[in-house]
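Hello K.,

You asked for the raw outputs rather than the summary table, so here they are, unedited. I folded two proteins back to back in the same session to keep the settings identical. This is the first:
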Amino acid sequence: MAHKNIPVFIPHLGCPNTCVFCNQRSISGKMSFDARSVPEIIENALKTVDPQKDEAEIAFFGGSFTGIDRNDMIYLLSCAKGYIDEGRVKSIRLSTRPDYIDKEILEILKLYGVKNIELGIQSLSDKVLKHSKRGHSAEDSERACRLIKEYGFNLVGQMMLGLPSSTLEDELMTAKRLCELSVDAVRIYPTAVFSSTELDEMMKNGDYTPLTVDEGAERSAEILMLIEKYGVPCIRCGLQAQENLSDSSVVTSGAYHPAFGSIAFGKVMKKAIIAELEKNKFVIPEYPRQLRFAVAPKRVFDASGYKKENKLFFLKNYNIHVKFIGDKSLKGYECRLLTGKE
């Protein structure tokens, strides 16, 4: 069955501080929240769900869910659990901060049918967390991860790239550590600079240099290849495209692009193709020729690259026209050069 999230945004509620990069109003498009509107939001979303084909999950996103007023949290969980009890919704998903996770909270979440917890870890470097004014330590994140897994929840680790003082090495360390902490999936968010944030002021003052889209995609590609080795999927790479985020007065700089994931996955596949050519001791021909490669069916588009940039790259730099064929025997980013007989 197809998975469908029913998103309920609770912008900035429960968050104890403001990180230098945060502007939840811009990210969610919402400034206020009325808990009484939740049943209507869910009912409207359920009209688009086919119970024969879709598996629905109510997802509380946008704020630090476990940090909101306890009565409000129980009310929202009760509303959601009612739909689980009726068989109209399968489970509950929520996002929160590492320092708002403890045994008491996890007992409550388990009681109300929460299945998936997304943890805004951002980095496991204390240096980066401090410069981002995150308000918690790397050890807080590791402790929260261990507790969440101990209680049997599915855990998604959210990490950011290009934060103040962060290097590729910091980010690879964070991704590796998340895998070692047994996260079930990862979300990768290259930093976008939002207006009316401290990060925007830091950039204007010359105290912060944001990643470009290309730099963010290159770093993301390195992370994607690393977590693939651990068998951990990436369920999102880049901020979800929204109309308001394309406004330059909202996102002033940084690695935001509505098709960021496609760009990053294209870079991963380009690296895989180059590795396959090197493995086969490929010699650049004097005249253009065509080579065919087998890739996993879901990676055929990525192999061509965003706007076919990989095809253009290999024609310009290797003098070859590349063609990609889906092969169900291949997984992940595997790539195989095909001979004339295949």
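The second followed immediately with the same parameters:
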Amino acid sequence: MYSGDMLVNLIGIEEKELPEGVKIKRAFPGDMTRILDFVCENFGEGWRGETTYALMQQPPTCYIATIDGKIAGFACYDASAKDFFGPTGVDKNLRGKGIGEALLRRVLVAMREEGYAYAIIGWVGDAKEFYEKTVDAKYIDGGEPQNSVYRNMVKM
């Protein structure tokens, strides 16, 4: 399995029509506890720091998907480093419904609106084919975690 960074050209990325009942919005800092609880319960403690950082930016660089007022997924950018997409995830019971793609595209459009021409999708593992198929992302030669911004982690 590949594990490394991928690059996506933001020119031409468009938002996707939302699945029925799904809303996507920029996260509100007042929801920080609720969002962090969702992240930790569904994806573990590893993404807490990056998500917290994204929530504390002004404006926040975290988006959430909701269904009936409940968090269904999240996506961040500029958390690990400038111009990096991620972390991101969708509730395992809601995967395959287009929520992840809608979040991805919304965040990539936000990045383009901020002036980025390309985005780096950080430390991609088993989602490589999803990013290739969805936004034509390409892996970066030499972009393995030990050669990326993640080398600065205390323990990889």
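The beta strands are 4-9, 22-26, 62-67, 70-77, 84-90, 118-124, 138-139.

Happy to rerun anything if the numbers look odd on your end.

Regards,
P.
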